[in-house]
Amino acid sequence: MIVRVSRRVRSLCDNLLKLRRQLSSAHQPPRHDMYDPPPERPSESDCCGNGCAECVFDVYDREYARWRHRRRTGQGDRLRRDLLSATKCMPYRIVSARPLGDDDVHAYTFAATPAASGRLPIAYTQHVHVRLADGLDRPYTPVAVADDGCSFDVLVKAYPGGRFTGRLLEMSVDDVVAVRGPYGGVRYDGYDSVVMFAGGTGVAAFVGLIGSALDDDKCETLLRLHYSCKTLDGVLMRKELADYAAYWNCAVHLYLTREHDWSQRSKSFWYIENITKGRISQDCVAKIVDKQQNLKTLWLICGNDEFNRYVFNSLVDYNIKRDDIRLLNNTTKDFEVS
């Protein structure tokens, strides 16, 4: 017996099937690879040929392996990896630039262009390279990464006669630079405490790290920042650091190396600030190390080359294992312990 189905019933069935497909697709997990294209292979001309410790082709091989792992395991996310690359420069515009303190330091905000939504794949303590039109570039560690808007903030120290900073300061809001990265970064999983030594703008490497750790209610890692700068007015992110010091597991110690009228200047100290006159001396390092004797500690250092060498060698002299010491944004070639 043949049953004839009316056009009306057939149309109704088709509509039900269509609705079912729509409902099914609505419950599918979001595609995590929509902002995660494979890294672009660098050209031969991208390699300088100087035998760098980490050649651009080494970076590509590592990033490609990570991309393959994310695709294979499905461990993706919604980070905008399409807007940053460790092997290719991407356009970013200057959103704002403003001076900080009295030490020729400026806070810059860069955002992806064209404008985009989402968060950039930058973890705190990682750094990016900012390149100008003439090819000059410098590494900077973001102090803040926006949760939306694909932007990040960095601190820029303007040196007298500095080619890069001189040209950057001549640029205006909405001018475009090229950004490549991110690189580096550290993890403190498995450590009881993290002790950080910062010199000048090197504090930028730690501000975001401390803030993100304190935002995690489950984090019980002890955080200790020892920050050396010339004057009290030159202390960067002072308000943020004071707020951090109010947490039970965070301590901030400032060292002022060029304050002359100490009795007058000390009147400007905030009640929660722990400030020492002078540099981070050998005696200071010895006391810091002694307080960490019973803790598994990660030691982080970020400053200029002289500062990095001094702190690194001091820690090694006090029998700190080199595997527990990390130098962030170190520009010293062939770094050796004296």
Automatic annotation (TrEMBL):
Name any one Pfam family assigned in the record.
Oxidored-like
Give the compositionally biased regions (Basic and acidic residues). Answer: 30-43
Region annotated Disordered, chain positions: 24-43
Q: Indicate the segments forming the FAD-binding FR-type domain, all copies.
A: 87-189
| PANTHER family noted in UniProt | NADH-CYTOCHROME B5 REDUCTASE, NADH-CYTOCHROME B5 REDUCTASE-LIKE
Similarity comment: Belongs to the flavoprotein pyridine nucleotide cytochrome reductase family.
The protein in question is named NADH-cytochrome b5 reductase-like
Please report the organism this UniProt entry assigns to the protein.
Aphis craccivora
